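Recall from the previous lesson that a structure prediction takes nothing but the amino acid sequence as input. Here we apply that procedure to TetR family transcriptional regulator from Streptomyces viridochromogenes. The sequence below is the only information supplied.
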Amino acid sequence: MLWGEQEPPSRGPKPSLTAGRIAEAAMGIADEEGLDAVSLARVAKEFGVTAMALYRYVPGKAELLDLMVDLAIGPPTPIAGIPGGWRPQLTEWARQCSATYSRHPWILAATGMRRQIMGPHQLGWLETALAAMAGTGLSAAQQHDTFLLLVGHVRNIAQQHVDHDEAANAEWARLTADVLERHADRFPALTSAIAEGAFAPRGGDPLDFGLERILDGVAALIP
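The prediction returns the following tokens.
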């Protein structure tokens, strides 16, 4: 019922509000002010109505989040025409998924707090990923597991961007260096890794390293 399947009223004026318009307003609030700022009362103010007026279209906060997430994710990027088969297609799929999280970082919190209903756009992204693996010889379970691995990696990188704090990172580095200076004999591998620049800033997209390793593993499964 959330995604445009409601029957329109047979009589009377056409409603001025729709679930889609409400979700769009809520998404705008989340983009500008963060997810915590979103409530039915806050969205209602955008339309100059009371929160009760929205319940005709959106039963509650959970359903509003479902609508917002699906709207923000949007339709999947077409990848079937990318030459080279499943691997470059899934690579582009993951990069476009990552770009979505960059545009709407609040999606992480909205989808991490509970198992939400997958809307048509989300199902479309799943369909697109599975279609890219059709004909590879991977079982249906392996295809689904690959999808979960890709989504998990993309979300992990996106969460790192959200949590990034230069001051906190500098303090962590200072405290860690102090501990290692006094107890280097207990952590020889870590001490060596730091000395060789394991934690130093480096160029390139952090998404790519994990993405390539995941796809290498998938390739090894293909007959």
